[in-house]
Amino acid sequence: MIESALLWYTLYTEVLHKEGFEINPYDRYVANKVINGKQCTIGWYIDDNILSHVETSVVDSVINNIEGYFPGLVVERGKDLNFLGMEIGFLEKGKLKLSLMPYICGMIEELEESLAPYGENLDRDYPHPAAK
Question: Which of 56, 49, 62 has its CA nearest to residue 8?
Fold first, then answer.
């Protein structure tokens, strides 16, 4: 599993380099390229990506170029996005809403479902953090 993740990372960063992107030295899962005088940024985690640029046509072009290497991309666009469980809402200029509540609630529901067969639940008080 570790080797396949490294192979994917190597392949994907090679594609980004071919497209003129530079990997950010502080976050190896972010790449930048100046297009039409403005920064274009791609962030990714495995095969989930988030892409930004002020011009929609540039976003279209970058997506089409990457899809040339990896056909069948699923693209989500708009002012409200879900990226890795984060709900991102682009509000008025310069303002962003970020929420993890649906993701956290989903994790709690999954935990409760996994505890149910054992007669356990999360609806009780605990005398201290180390309690069962």
Answer: 49
Residues 106 and 112 sit within 8 Å (Cβ to Cβ): no
CA distance 39 to 9: 22
For the record, the structure tokens of 126 come out as 């605990």
The two tokens of residue 119 are 């007669």
Q: Which structure tokens are listed for 19?
A: 């497209």
Facing residues of 42 across strands? 31, 51
Q: Which region holds residue 46: left if phi is over 0, alpha if psi is between -120 and 50, else beta?
A: left
The type of residue at 45 is Y
pTM of the model: 0.71
Q: What is the pLDDT along the chain (132 residues), one digit of tens a residue?
A: 779 889 999 999 999 999 999 999 999 999 999 999 999 999 998 888 999 999 999 999 999 999 999 998 888 888 888 888 889 888 888 898 999 998 898 888 888 888 877 777 767 677 777 755
Give the C-alpha distances (Å, rounded to integers) separating 52 from 49, 98, 119: 10, 16, 47
Hey, where are the domains in the chain?
2-118
